[in-house]
Amino acid sequence: MFDRLIWDKLNEECGVFGIYDHPQAPQLTYLGLHALQHRGQESAGMCASDGEKWYKHRGMGLVSEAFGKGDLEKFAGHIAIGHTRYTTAGASKIENAQPLFFRYAQGSMAVAHNGNLVNASLLRKQLEEQGSIFQTSSDTEVIAHLIARSRSKDLPGAVREALQQIKGAFALLVMNERQLLIALDPNGLRPLSLGRLGQAVCVASETCAFDIVGAEYWREVEPGELIVIDETGVHSSRFAEKTERAICTFEYIYFARPDSDIDGINVHMARKRLGKQLAKEAPVEADVVTGVPDSSISAAIGFAEATGIPYELGLIKNRYVGRTFIQPTQELRERGVHLKLSAVRKVVEGKRVVMIDDSIVRGTTSRKIVRMLREAGATEVHVRISSPPVMNPCFYGIDTSTRDELIASSKSVEEIRGIIGADSLAFLSIEGMLDAIGRSDTSSDRGHCLACFTGKYPTEIEFADALPVNKC
């Protein structure tokens, strides 16, 4: 994949959207998926029901590609759930596209899931030994098998039983012809919000999806909460004991759209505060500040405001580069980053430039962007990162699974500076990051998962042998 080859970023896995009790549920879900496109660009899908009949479609590519001409017109129903998916290399295939649909002894159901189960391989092995046959490599299918094997006579009871067996990160939507079920893992690692549109109830990975469908934000789904929506109303209960919230910090730093709110905190404003805090911790004499598009622009504006150094669009993103790109020669591969970004020569030429980015993962893209700025005439390039060094892998749905992939796990800040070719390099401190984001949680980690920075994981990590379980 083009992005994986030349764009050195962490990648979120999925986005989910659902709606209950609206005559245009499929059409609104389609719009909601467009708003969540940034969370998954490999495949998209939707399941809907009118109370008797099912309507289903999955496809590869962006939402607009997955749903071709006439696909949406075939849908009807007042309940729908949808999904956008990002996959790891080798797992981009239609079988893993969601929602997954199943017929089982108690009827039919559709399942959509954002996150990653840390005990999925163990559960999968146990289920296969008991006779289960898997059609996908997705850990979402593990959840479905657990639901189907439950002795409960209704879907809510079966889902509750399944939830008590899985561990890790999950924002989960399950539906049948009459009910929509919503669940969030006990640590709340993924964001999940509720909205209202008239009498209809919406659920989405991010609040920006409510804006596009005209819904009003209602509240966050609580960690460990199971919500059942049916003709009798909205019913909330807990499937797990209350524990410390541990939302993925990179939702605020990078993943979420700037116009989304997470736990009442606007993402754009949080990123501006990250930039301002970075300016306090790592000031530098320079002529211009620029951010790496798009997620770092808010932090760059904050850095500029705090220092008084002018903010300029020194880097421009090409929004028309396809997600896949055949690169026949090494030379084209080396220059691949220029297809995605361009330096504005008249902005940076002869200037001391502060380049703001949200993270350094492997270091390859940072090195190329620094070189690009120098080639455009920058006399100095000072790199400032609006997060601490990423030193540990994520097992909850982000595509870093080994420490070897992470440059900060084995290199000092000075060594990284030399590798990327910057005149200076500084990362934001953990405490400064937490203060800037501004969560009011009183726990030791302020309600964040900091595992990629500290190595302290909020759940036990349980993997069986080397069984490949693709995230999401």
Can you offer a commentary on this structure?
- The structure is a single chain.
- By secondary structure, this protein is of the alpha+beta class.
- It folds into 2 domains: 254 residues, Aminohydrolase, N-terminal nucleophile (Ntn) domain (Glutamine Phosphoribosylpyrophosphate, subunit 1, domain 1, 4-Layer Sandwich); 171 residues, Rossmann fold (3-Layer(aba) Sandwich), CATH 3.40.50.
- The chain is 28% helix and 25% strand.
- It contains 17 helices and 23 strands.
- The chain has a 7-stranded antiparallel sheet.
- The longest helix is centred in the middle third of the chain and has 15 residues.
Write a compact overview of the structure shown.
The protein is of the alpha+beta class and 472 residues long.
- Output the strand order for the largest sheet: 3-2-4-1-10-9-11
Percent of residues in β-strands: 25-35%
Helix content: 25-40%
Question: Which assembly state applies to the chains in this document?
Answer: single chain
Say which CATH homologous superfamily of the largest domain is assigned.
Answer: Aminohydrolase, N-terminal nucleophile (Ntn) domain
What Rg, in angstroms, do the CA atoms define?
A: 22 Å
The name of the CATH architecture of the largest domain is: 4-Layer Sandwich
CATH topology of the largest domain: Glutamine Phosphoribosylpyrophosphate, subunit 1, domain 1
Low-confidence parts, pLDDT < 50 over ≥5 residues? Answer: 1-7, 323-328, 464-472
Q: Count helical runs.
A: 17
Give the termini distance in whole angstroms.
18 Å
The domain tally reads 2
Main sheet characteristics: 7 strands, antiparallel
